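User: Please fill in residues for this 130-position structure.
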C-alpha cells in the first residue's frame, strides 16, 4: 500500500515528469504510474513523510522536511478543504471526490506557493482550469 501525505493527492494528479533530481523523478514516475493505472490502488493517507518523500532531497528526516512550514501548510489546507483523515482510501475514489469539489481558487490557495505549480498539469488535471 502506498503512503501519501494529503497534498500529494494533488501532486500525483498534476505530475508531468519534472522533479528535483533523477532519483526523485524515478521514484515519482513509479508511484504515479502505479496510482494512475490501477483503479483498485489503495493508499494510506499519512500526516507525515510518505513514499514520495523517500527520494526527495528536501527530506531531512522522518516527518521532517527542510521546507517543513510550507509543506505543512499544503497538507493542512488540503485536509481542511476536503475533510481528510489519516486512514486508508481508494486513490481514485478520493481523488475524484477532491476533483469534484476543487475550484481554481482553492487550488491556488493550496498550491500557489509551490515551485512546481506554474510548470505542472495541476490546473488542467485537477479542476479543468486553464
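Assistant: Residues filled in for all 130 positions:
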Amino acid at each position: 500500500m502506498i503512503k501519501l501525505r494529503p497534498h500529494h493527492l494533488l501532486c500525483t494528479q498534476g505530475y508531468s515528469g519534472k522533479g528535483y533530481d533523477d532519483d526523485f523523478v524515478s521514484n515519482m514516475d513509479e508511484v504515479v504510474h502505479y496510482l494512475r493505472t490501477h483503479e483498485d490502488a489503495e493508499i494510506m493517507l499519512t500526516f507525515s513523510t510518505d513514499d514520495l518523500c523517500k527520494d526527495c532531497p528536501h527530506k531531512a528526516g522522518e516527518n521532517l522536511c527542510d521546507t517543513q512550514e510550507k509543506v505543512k501548510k499544503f497538507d493542512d489546507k488540503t485536509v481542511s478543504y476536503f475533510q481528510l483523515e489519516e486512514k486508508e482510501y481508494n486513490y481514485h475514489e478520493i481523488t475524484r471526490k477532491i476533483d469534484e469539489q476543487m475550484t481554481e481558487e482553492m487550488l491556488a490557495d493550496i498550491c500557489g506557493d509551490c515551485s512546481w505549480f506554474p510548470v505542472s498539469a495541476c490546473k488542467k488535471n485537477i479542476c479543468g482550469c486553464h
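For context: DSSP finds six helices and five strands in the chain.
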